[in-house]
Write a structure and sequence with these properties.
With about 120 residues, the protein is α+β, with helices and mostly antiparallel strands. It is about 55% helix and about 10% strand.
């Protein structure tokens, strides 16, 4: 049986990196996505909504992540007459950049073994 090259081209590796602090996740793909959405929307509530999670869940994720860091990833402003909001700190921006770099480098390191692995997969 000939292998279908198109179906094997769709095979990919998706590293899901987690930075652990003891047994707890300090940073992972969901938290980085949340940070990116906060940067995009300027709002923790809007970022949570875009991810399909509750505001409280998003707040807990950010709060724990901030506790793990030497400098907070986001700063929040409580609502009121002028409205609230959230913004990334310089540390938060650096965290995103470093995490995405680790993902890219993991994918790059996986290219050669993946090419060999594709030969062992069914089309």
């Amino acid at each position: 049986m000939a292998k279908n090259p198109t179906s094997l081209q769709k095979v990919q590796v998706r590293p899901r990196l987690r930075v652990m602090r003891g047994n707890e996740i300090a940073l992972g793909p969901g938290r980085v996505d949340l940070l990116e959405l906060i940067e995009k929307t300027g709002s923790l509530r809007s970022a949570a909504q875009a991810m399909g999670i509750s505001y409280m869940r998003a707040w807990n994720l950010i709060r724990y992540t901030n506790q793990c860091l030497s400098k907070p990833a986001i700063k929040t402003v409580r609502g009121g007459k002028t409205g609230g909001g959230a913004r990334l700190t310089d540390s938060g921006k650096e965290i995103i950049a470093l995490y995405r770099r680790m993902e890219r480098e993991s994918q790059k390191a996986s290219r050669q073994p993946l090419a060999r692995l594709k030969k062992l997969l069914k089309p």
